[in-house]
Amino acid sequence: MTARAGRGAGGLLRAAPALTVGAFLLPIAAGLAGTLLPAFGYLPAIGGDALGLDGFRRLVAYPGFASSVAVTLTTGIATPLLAVAIALALCAYAHGRPWQQRLSARLAPVLATPHSALAIGLAFLLAPSGWIARLGSPWLTGWTLPPDVATVGDPAGIALVLGLLVKEVPYLVLMIVGALNQVPAREHVVVARALGYSRTQAWLKVVLPQVYPQIRLPVYAVIAFSLSVVDVALILGPTNPPTLAVLAVRWFTDADIDFYFQAAAAATLLLAIVIAAIAGWYGLELVVIGAGRRWIAQGARDGALAAGARAGAAGFCALSAAAAAALAGMVLWSFAAQWRFPAALPQAWSLANWMRRLDGLAGPALTTLAVGVLATAIALALVIGCLENESRSRHRAGPRALWLLYLPLLVPQVAFLFGAQVLLVRLGFDGALAAVVWAHLVFVLPYLFLSLADPWRSFDPRYARSAASLGASPARVLFAVKLPILLKPVLIACAVAFAVSVGQYLATLFAGNGRVATLTTEAVTLAAGADRRVIGAYAVAQAAFPLLAYVAAVAIPALLYAHRRGLGGRG
Amino acid sequence: MTSAAAPLRLSAVRIELAGRELVAPLTLDIAPGECVTVMGPSGCGKSTLLAFVAGTIEPAFRATGRVALGARDVSDLPPEARRIGILFQDDLLFPHLSVGDNLAFALAPRVRERRKRRAQVAQALVEADLAGFADRDPATLSGGQRARVALMRTLLSEPQALLLDEPFNKLDAQLRQDFRRFVFAHAAERALPVLLVTHDAADAQAAGGRVVALARP
Predict the structure, then answer these.
(1) Which domains can be identified in chain B, with CATH numbers?
(2) A181 versus A484: which is more confidently predicted?
(3) Could you tell me if A432 lies within 8 Å of chain B, comparing CB atoms?
(4) How far apart are CA B129 and CA B146, in angstroms?
């Protein structure tokens, strides 16, 4: 047998999986403990040394408790249901149409834009004085002043659901498109259509059952995110009472530390709700699978479903239009000198918003860049270490590792970030840039891993074997053969990771202890009441960073390999 | 170019997968300049045998036995230290490198001087009837040209033995004959022991050496 000589670099490589898992499991575990214990009254540092349910009692006694839980549940359950329905309908409708191939490329701008930036743009669009009202006024509505209705921050949370759908539907579509590449979807639909099934019927009955297992975890992540989101809920969600997650953050950050116990109780309740919702969804899956089997066995070929798929696709188009208008609206606001209601466009343009804000923007922009680049670089080193270790030992991580990887996306952020902050304070490490980088790493790592794993694993191992037989050491194979060939997926994964870092609100707020300001924390804070022209400038800057990263990730390999047809160039 | 002139020795090589014997103990002595063909249907473990000799066998297989080049036992060496070249069914030219850089990749680093390295690459291209192709994108070459570059790349690494994993399989009939002749001529010129695996009897005939049959397990 081949005995591989134990080298220093090899040892480091073998440690990569443990380091990676530790890098994000440790803060989550410590953070959960730091939330669960105070929820039950235990936090000696501020006088809590007796276990009890006092925190929960105070939580329940809060006057808005019932409506807060209700709006959390309705928005948090409506969003994944609608998102999954629209995403599936779109994919069923798109199957085999000429524009299907371009779908995922078209999604990139929306996927790259941070949640909070899109939410700000949507608020500009939907508000009583927003773009939609302006376009219809006064000729249609007769309004010369903004109407007095709550279209943003409505008590039912409709704006919040819309704000979440705009991001979550494209995310799910991307996941489905990725999963479709792993099954012979095209061939199977051809076979089913030859047997008399319509496109939609064929897709739902033949392709979906093969694809669903691979999008299950992303769907669970959407459920957890919708129930526990903070930044979007701050911008678009109801205010009094707000959702449970916002309530927890409000109490966690209250100057009176006495609120800490009920904040921890709210976060714990949210954790329980998320676990119950995911379990409930799993139960729903079982029911649907059972019913689906009978439905498929009946062999019905009627076309009623096509209308549903069309409706879903139309819904997707509406969401895309809303996203585009949201992005355009914030750009307009950032360059507006004067834009009175009900004018459809600014009456006067100016660069003043940008010039005047340059000083204020520069600091947060630099911090955003530094944190994003550092977190991405560390995550990239760890992920490449894991994947390279995997391909050298030829031992592939199983499905349990995938669950582990999704953990940061499944556990509500409020449920562990504040606990982690308490730990950081105790270590005297809070508010440091390094702490923020680490907190970002927790969310950056899984996304970077997930987007790089597939291309890495489908890399033809014979390239590496050829190179080794030509005398190249494993390190040379990695740096001179593998990484250059995989340059494009590596850079795309980095752009995804960077975008995730730029969008982090709560992680920055808590790990930075409010002292580290990024474009996202500034934009969310300003969204609560500042001048729209100022908010617009921050939101545009916030959206521009990840977008530029994507452009670079596509442009760099295209330039470097312009003369390499085997890598997408023109040869 | 140094000629190795040492035989490739396989002694009692036995490979099993999940308790099933793929290759029964095989002892084989391949003299310099000789080509031995291992024949068998697909799935019989031919490629696995080559992977074992090259040092790239998957850990799922249980393999025992020794591989030596003359007196040098390479069984415990990593693939990059064995100096055993291998050609696959696909040419596997690195798509990010030019034709010339693919060849330079194989040159030993001890040839330091840029001019010398270039000259060796140019010489290899002349031998492959591809003079002046150094700056070309490998993806723009024809299948036969790419196959010849792949062989020259392997030879530039100065291997002491050559393994052929059905490298003629994907070429069409005329090209296949030409490329076979090209490969065997170069191997003979360098007195390399060659181990060819194939399921095509014509390959074995062209190789002109001993034939070992592997049975379906």
Answers:
(1) 1-83+158-217 (3.40.50.300), 95-142+149-156 (no CATH)
(2) A484
(3) no
(4) 12
